[in-house]
Amino acid sequence: MKYDQLLKEKFKLEAFRGVQKEVLDKLLSGVSVFSLMPTGTGKSLCYQMIAFLQPPQEMVLVVSPLIALMQDQVLKARDLGLKAACINSSLSFEERAKVLKRMASKDLDILFVTPERFKKLEFLEALKQVKISLFVVDEAHCASLWGHDFRPEYSQLGKFIQLCESPLVLALTATATPVVQKEVCQILNLSYPQAMILGGIERTNIAIHVTETYGQEEKFEAIFKDLLAQPNLASGIVYFSLIQTLEKFSQFLQTKKIVHTKYHGDLPAHVRRKNQNNFIKDIDNLILATPAFGLGVDKSNIRFVYHAEIPSTLESYFQEIGRGGRDGKLSQATLFYDQEDVSIQMQFLDWAYPEAEFIKKVYDLIHTYPEKVSMEGYDFLREQMVFKNRKDYRVNAAVSILNRWGSLAEADTPFGYLAVTEPEEELFKKENQNILKKEHQKKLLEILRWAKNTEHCRMNEIYKYFGYDHAPCGLCDTCRGDELASHD
Ligand code: ADP
Ligand code: MG
Questions:
Q1: What proportions of the chain, in percent to the nearest 5, are helix, strand and coil?
Q2: CA torsion sign, 84 to 88 to 94 to 95?
Q3: Rounded to whole angstroms, what are the CA distances from 234 to 86, 288, 295?
Q4: Ligand nearest 40 Cα, by number?
Q5: Ligand 1 pocket: which of 14, 44, 66 to mutate (most atoms within 8 A of CB)
Q6: Measured in angstroms, how far is the CA atom of residue 39 from the centroid of ligand 1?
Q7: Which of 249-261 are b and which e, b meaning 16 or more Cβ less than 10 Å from the residue's Cβ?
């Protein structure tokens, strides 16, 4: 077969992995696919392969949610010998024009875009000039309101696929519950379950442990004890929900002379980048991070992923611990669970999904006081809205929602945004923050129930959540019957 040869010659690989071949066979027989494959197992290979096999005039179009990951995807495709490019808001006008020109003159094998691109006329014009062999939706769970990373632009993709004259579609994700799978198929006009190829989500080298603690002091000591038990120079992440707790723990580690680095939103971008690189290159072995850390971090030798605070969904938890042990060797995943931490997550949910009235008021402020907002930004807005409670980030959530809805445009000011059009009632209905919040609260309840369970295999309980059922993992605390730190 032709693609077996390509696999050796272009990809320098011996054999397909998991369901890669099944996905390719189905695509090559002309049927669209929605495939679930574990992170790091090679989803990209499926569409890169099509980019080699397509007629020379055609192009693979990949919709991807994150600008940060795109450059990396372009470089990887170029390494393989594909003519690859991306278009996103980080490019200059000239750079964008150049890519559009290459696209219209059929000089690209593969193009990466964010879904927002379909709102731009010049992109749609260029799109008309080229035949799309495969329309790829990477991180397809983002299309579902019930997924853990909802991106409203993703829910428009069905329309955009039609706009491209309904080419073959390949939707990809590592995590989607059956409910999410069904909804994504609906949005992308794929037939459910016929389009599904489930590559499984099983990770057989992660040992989960839940340690229940009471109070911060006890928790810090417990994490410290576990860190000491790790082999010298083992790479690991400790995740925190709150920057404040992360910083406190960092100070605690300093008093214990434990070398570590940090990654969170209060650090300047260049420091974050440097710290991330030092971790990836094994210069630092321990990183304390908020959940923003890890997406697209391709590091195979992570030996432990600890959670100092419980994440708000099992989806996030599974994704985060899944960063451990990519090399196939054992990785330890420990959740340090304190009942008190649940209230942090509850509070987060209240803030993440502000009321319609709140969002409208933030818009009005940005619209009415453009100069003040441009210069003083969030400080001014917060002062008006939440009386300087710096921790309350409803204002940030509202701004990000308004930006997503197109009510704000990015601007070259300290604040970064300008008001353009008032959000329509339609949007408040379509993306009802109260409904979203309730759904998220249900998920929080699920992960709590999961953490409290001391009977069933922890890993298999996660698989069940995603609609699979496997044999007990044999590695987690419940499988091994460890003395549990649970005091019922
Ligand atoms: P993801 O599924 O997370 O998108 P990637 O597509 O980025 O994963 O691939 C992760 C790594 O797996 C890459 O380094 C890639 O070269 C490698 N890979 C892909 N397919 C195979 C294979 N069949 N055999 C071995 N390695 C593979
Ligand atoms: Mg990927």
A1: 45, 15, 40
A2: negative
A3: 36, 14, 20
A4: 1
A5: 44
A6: 9
A7: bbebbeeeeeebb
Alpha-helical runs (H) found in 369-432: 370-386, 394-404, 425-430
Q: Please identify which residue in the block is written with the tokens 């723990």.
A: 249
Closest ligand to residue 139's CA = 2
Per-residue pLDDT for the chain (488 aa), expressed as one digit of tens each? Answer: 589 999 999 999 999 999 999 999 999 999 999 999 987 789 999 999 999 999 999 999 999 987 777 888 999 999 999 999 999 888 889 999 999 999 999 999 999 999 989 988 899 999 999 999 999 999 999 888 766 677 778 888 999 999 999 999 999 998 888 889 999 999 999 999 999 999 988 899 999 999 999 999 999 999 999 999 999 899 999 999 999 999 999 999 999 999 999 999 889 988 998 999 999 999 999 999 998 888 767 788 999 999 999 999 999 899 899 999 988 899 999 999 999 999 989 988 999 899 999 999 999 999 999 999 999 988 899 888 876 666 778 898 899 889 888 899 878 888 889 999 999 999 999 889 999 899 899 999 999 999 999 999 999 999 999 988 999 999 999 999 975 444 43
Both tokens of 435, joined, read 């409904």
Mutate to test the pocket of ligand 1, among 22, 41, 69, 141 (most ligand atoms within 8 A of CB): 41
Q: Which residues pair with 197 in a beta bridge?
A: 35
